[in-house]
Amino acid sequence: MKSFLGIDPGQKGGVAIIHPEGAEAWRYPGDIVSAADLLRDIHVNHNITMACIESVHSMPKQGVSSTFKFGQNFGAWLGILAALGIPHMTITPHKWQKAVLDAGTGDTKARSLNMARRLFPEVELKYKADDGKADALLMATYAKRLEIGDKV
């Protein structure tokens, strides 16, 4: 019984799992200790085959403080995955979006929300602020497709 995890490591990111019974998603719990507790609980209840975490880098005009905080979150998530022994891969937004989102132009956050709503109607994605949960669901989808040999 394989399960696939997706993690958007941003401060407004999310965590999602696709498992044999369906899918679940959570917003970033607010601090890394709560994030570790969440990931441990997920790990205890599911056989995670692969976790996919979005690779981060600095962006033009992004402040030094926010870039540093983003990098800290990313490193903390990697540490939690390693400590729990969860197999994982990092992926750029461009790569998973190209593989999972419908072809199109425009706001990738809106496209991500729309796609996740179609694929996972059981997951509550009511608000624009749920885009981190949607991204996490789609990264988990990428990991699942990669595992089963779908073209990604």
From TrEMBL:
Organism field: Mariprofundus micogutta
CDD domains documented for this protein: MOC1
Transmembrane segments: none
GO molecular function: crossover junction DNA endonuclease activity; nucleic acid binding
Protein name as it appears in the record: Crossover junction endodeoxyribonuclease RuvC
InterPro entries in UniProt: MOC1-like, RNaseH-like_sf, RNaseH_sf
